């Protein structure tokens, strides 16, 4: 297993190289002038268009531009992200903790409730809870997340004023930037507790609640459906019948014997979900003005912020490799028949 | 009680609570954060460095909150000034302006301190002006001082190949002299709009502070190192500030795109009433509107008139519209010599009914015909909810040279037909034409315009055909710069409140618009250059009226609308007023306070 993990890690630079070459190649499809539009945003700067192209080497052949980028990389620099207003590596470091925190608050309830509800639906097939979960899944999954986001924002911020957008309120933000507050993890809820500041914790939770709720509702639906079908499959197996026949308690049959075997597709889906969330919960972050990495990545892509997009893509590619690796390791842990090697 | 029933009860309870809270929230809000002003904008600050910034959000943030200029606009006027860091506004009477209009003498105010407590001196003023001129990044604001001081042929510190002009430091250094407590600026040629430039483009920074933080020390030898830097954060004042203004920079949090300013208690005038200014970037209009409704934001950017109805009638919210602005936006330009190379926009590139020749618009009858077809008021009504003034020339309403009764083409199908029949010796009418009219996707106003032009033109003759097409903003700019768009719609807002800042880009043969458009009239060029130098406002006005007359006669461009502003703020914000040069609304937060 160790060798397997190491091999996967060795893949990372290769993946990063592939991704960056792909991005630079794709960028050649848009003209230098279009790429210069990142720096020339106002009509007043139009006369300077050709100077900007020359300054940033935007009309150079692709290998020269890639070479320039590699040179910066050699200096430990992923380039200047014009959309983030900071170097790309700093941007990743600045935006990622917010998304990671949000992802955790989405992922945990999605998996816990989703698997529970899916199991219940399978066990009580064609009963109320099954119908309810199906209706729930179809209606939530059927509506785009930005519609949900806007509705939740309207209700929970516009009407109730419970879950405001942003990451912290004004006072809390000022306090966390003051010397009295130490950042240990950059996850605000965790740091708040480590600093013994309950009110910051509450404030941060209130800000996470909006985007988290939006995505929990949408993402859970899929997991409920997958868990249900996977469980139904397993519940028909002989060993489940055997378990019941030999007089095992129903919870033991369901939780220990059936569900464990139904977990493989759930793990696959969960790992994809986790990586997907980390890589960009763009719409929820944008609607709730949550300063995460997805919002930045999308903005960088739209504005052709080349260093920004490239850095973001490398980062997400890395996450995906790691996510898949985690799923593989989990398979082996859950199913002894699977051997990594 | 079974599960269904229990669920129903819970649902009803939740609904009840929701409605009860909703009705309770709206009425009688107390002032939130009474000593903090929160502005939410769709844009974000690009840099805090006055020598780099050339966008409205950055500019509004630092000017006149952190940094101050030598002179400042008097109230809502753009043609009268009050002294700010100069102790009086130079003019002919007080000897501050020489009789030949070339020399400007500024007495520098004494006793003004930078935020770090060091005194502001005449040397700082000179340094600040030189710094803006000589750091000169591509597509930056440096030309705004270079051109009037060193002559309008000097738009940059570099030649066409991008090499630094060898004597540029010496020339700038000679033009600006410190004599005791005064700064004397000598222009190569007189320029009547110079004071109006300085009212915006003379923010004073601390030379010591910049040098101590690794920036340019003001010396000739080190200057090239700081010229045209590639990355904004290489400029010292990118994220640091040490000005003289009523607010100090507390923090620029780029992670949340928030700038926080805090009151300068050692300000040279009475300190500001507000303790803190918070400028947040919230891209979506929905959250901005809710923040305004909940009192979390005191002022928001509207982000397009399409959002106007969503803020009208909100309790506790004030919507101020029809605010005078100095903008000509948009105007519809016709390209005299379209680049035909692989250009599908002009079809066959011939006058055969399936395209237009590259010089289609060089025929004045074609241009006049189009001008007769565009209903400017209908366009303003449809695209801007009626907000804006009908335009009839390059110089906007409220500026010297604006022609209130300037001639323009009335809407007339018959006259358009008559012009088309004369165009290209009658061939246009007989054979017809076809071309593509583009707009940048997402710009509903320009999309409306292209649609209106298409309908008006195609309604005249079944052989006339215009395709409309949405392209991205970057493609639009690229195509325009390369003379590939047969017609294009773009707008202009004043860099400084002088008619020259409009006649040059719109009409001079080297102008931002007229250049690529291919419009060249020697008489126009001569008038623009003469009017720029003329110190007598009466004579200037005559020249500008003549220029507007020529804009009508030559009609290279169809003027449509002079822009107006709309501001949305909580009614508890006091002390706000408009100046046509303010783009965002919080430029002069010094006067602001909050109270019922």
Give a nutshell description of this structure.
Chain A has 341 residues and is mainly alpha-helical. Helices cover 74% and strands 1% of the residues of chain A. Chain A has helices at 2-27, 32-36, 49-55, 62-74, 88-123, 128-142, 145-159, 170-176, 188-194, 198-235, 238-245, 250-279, 282-287, 293-302, 306-334; strands spanning 80-81, 86-87.
Q: How does this structure look, described?
A:
The complex is a heterodimer of chains A (341) and B (596). In chain A, a hairpin with a 4-residue loop joins strand 1 and strand 2. The longest helix of chain A has 38 residues, at 198-235. Chain A is 74% helix and 1% strand. In chain A, strands 1-2 form a two-stranded antiparallel sheet. Chain A has two domains: 2-81, no CATH class; 94-302, MetI-like (MetI-like fold, Orthogonal Bundle). Chain A has helices spanning 2-27, 32-36, 49-55, 62-74, 88-123, 128-142, 145-159, 170-176, 188-194, 198-235, 238-245, 250-279, 282-287, 293-302, 306-334; strands at 80-81, 86-87. In chain A, helix 5 (88-123) packs across helix 10. The N and C termini of chain A lie close together (6 Å). By secondary structure, chain A is mainly α. In chain B, 32% of the residues lie in helices and 18% in strands. Chain B has 19 helices and 19 strands. Chain B has helices at 3-26, 56-62, 122-135, 143-150, 168-175, 194-201, 207-212, 285-293, 308-311, 364-373, 376-384, 413-422, 427-431, 444-458, 473-481, 500-507, 514-517, 522-533, 537-554, and strands at residues 36-41, 71-73, 81-83, 103-107, 176-179, 182-186, 247-253, 258-263, 276-281, 299-300, 317-334, 389-390, 433-440, 464-471, 487-493, 557-559, 561-570, 573-574, 593-594. In chain B, helix 14 (444-458) links the parallel strand 13 (433-440) and strand 14. Chain B is globular, with a radius of gyration of 27 Å. Chains A and B meet through helix 2, helix 3, strand 2, helix 5 and helix 7 of A and helix 1, helix 8, helix 15 and strand 15 of B.
